[in-house]
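Course assignment 3, question 2. Fill in each field.
Student: A.L.
Task: Predict the tertiary structure for the chain below.
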Amino acid sequence: MLTLVLLLVPTLAVISALYLYQHTGKKEILKFDLVQFAYAFVIAPIIYVWLKSFLFTLLVRELNLQLSVTDIFIADTVYTIIFLYFFAFIIIHSLTKSFSLKRSRDPFYDIFQMSEFFHMITSHVVFYVGGAILFTLLSTINIFFPVTSATNNILFYISLFLGLALGFIVYVGLLLTDDDFEEKYPRFEMFIELFFGAFFILDVGLYFYFRPEFDLGRVMYWVSLMAFAGFIASSLLIERSQKLVAILKRLHYKKK
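Answer field:
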């Protein structure tokens, strides 16, 4: 069954790519040309999973190399890093191709305005919202599946401190967003603060419901809780001090 899937996936991907190509320049999604969006965010991830499955099958079933879990992890990590670089250039190509199609239809089209759509609201939402969701998902999984081999208390307390520091850094990054962004999306900061506050409440609720142990085995949960707590505390303390806000912004613009 797996062999059949490994044969069908690239075949269907090629057929889909050829079929989609004839629709180039006709429709858009998130300001991407629809075809370029499909290449970057649908076909490329499918190819990634297919190649990963092929590599796993080759290493585990076909070559008989008696590889350990660590060996397979290293091979998977190397493959993932290589593909990430490859994927980055796919995104660059899809985006610039969408720019080119816009200009071919309208030579006076404002490419800068389109690029700012990705630079401003899209990338910021994905970074903050996506990061919070991913962090919470991993922390929830960690409640049910603790790291059983972890016993170092010093490392645990260092991790908690790093979680608080991460929350502070993320908030300062939000606070020091460019003025142009603040003018265009004045409610974005408040939205993110409310969003992170909701996830902090969710983490607290998970604690009272599941009572995870306070140890390194559930470090991801506790780091997540500390990160959200650090963000909320920074928001409450810094926003009340206009002097501190002014100092942070002065340091930010001084570096520019």
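Instructor remarks: Residues 69-105 form the longest helix (37 residues). The chain is about 80% helix and 0% strand.
Grade: pending
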